[in-house]
Amino acid sequence: MEKKTKDPKIKLEEPKHPLNAYLLFCADKREAILQSNPRITIGQLGKTLGAMWRKCNETEKEKYNQLAKKERERFEKEQKIYEQAKEIFRIESSSESSSEEDHRIQTRSQTREIRENEEKERIKRKIEKETKQTKKSPTGYLLFVQKVLPQIKKDYERLRVAEMGKIIGKMWRELPKEEKDVNFI
């Protein structure tokens, strides 16, 4: 009995974009700066590299410009090969890819639908929770505060809120229990 083997999937990786002269300069100098100053922050490192680049003479910048040019040429060659391989792969696997693509699209739409439904349910639960919460009746102290606060604000215009709270708390503590029970509970 023979084992069934799956066809190996070809994975094409797009070539990395080329670095410009400044980025090549930064890559070259970064390690030296980090070794001389290991506690340097990323922001300080960027500022230092920028200042060093600005101070470079034209011959040193030309060296990095040439490297950048070689990088661009390498990228363009690899990009052409990648595009050709992508076309070949697309032609060879066009019969299989349509059904796979349909399945992928269907799966994505189902996933999106599930996420949307979960979000709707979450919002629905939140609204239900908020509407179910009933306000508790205010305590005697809060009723007392509501009654005396306007007068306190009028009498003590320049006091801060914390100081007003202290005065109201003192008034509440000095209020006889019978008056609290009758008027505020």
Can you walk me through this structure?
The protein has 185 residues and is mainly alpha-helical. The protein has helices at 21-36, 42-55, 58-92, 94-132, 140-155, 161-174, 177-184. It starts with 20 loop residues before the first helix and ends with a helix.
The biggest beta sheet is recorded as: none
How much beta, percentage-wise? Answer: under 5%
- Could you tell me the number of beta strands? 0
How many helices? The count is 7
| Overall structural domain count | 3
Shape label: elongated
Mean pLDDT over the full residue set: 81
CATH-defined topology of the largest domain:
DNA Binding (I), subunit A
Order of helices and strands: HHHHHHH
Q: What structural class should be given to the helix and strand makeup?
A: mainly alpha
- Over all CA atoms, what is the radius of gyration? 37 Å
* The CATH architecture of the largest domain: Orthogonal Bundle
Helix content: over 70%
Report the uncertain regions: 1-7
Give the CATH H-level superfamily of the largest domain: High mobility group box domain
> Termini distance?
88 Å
Give the class-level CATH name of the largest domain.
Answer: Mainly Alpha
Pfam family, one: HMG_box
GO cellular component, one term: nucleus
DNA-binding region: 15-83, 134-185
Organism: Anaeramoeba ignava
